[in-house]
Amino acid sequence: MARELGGNNLSTDRAKLIATIRSYRDLPENWDRYGAKPSCQRAIDFAVQLLEAVPDMLPTNVVPISTGVYLEWLVPGRCLGIEVDDTSVLIKDDEDKTFSVELAVERVKRFLGKRTREGKP
Fold this sequence. Notes:
- The protein has three helices and six strands; from the N terminus they run βααβββββα.
- It has one domain (8-117).
- Helices cover 36% and strands 24% of the residues.
- The chain is of the alpha+beta class.
- The model is unreliable at 1-7 and 116-121 (pLDDT under 50).
- It starts with a strand and ends with a helix.
- β3 and β4 (78-84) form a beta hairpin.
- α1 (10-23) packs antiparallel against α2 (41-53) and α2 (41-53) runs parallel beside α3 (101-117).
């Protein structure tokens, strides 16, 4: 279920990633053997919204979690993890704060923008 991305065609990878995230809705009950239910449509929509708002870099990892979807961006020396559920977005970084989707988009853009300004590829 984990999805690692790579390659040179960002739009193709993005389309595949979105399809993978949408497939989390079709997971069976108890898919993780700990009683998890399939990701709800709202969490899936939030995760896709985050991806579409950050067009120039896809997350390194995307996996279903019991509450929705987890996205992770790994860059040299830094990691930004995001847990998306049906009501909010928890950003797992130095502060571990919960945000609305709109504010989470801005936080991801700042993280990726800082990465770019630091001269990282």
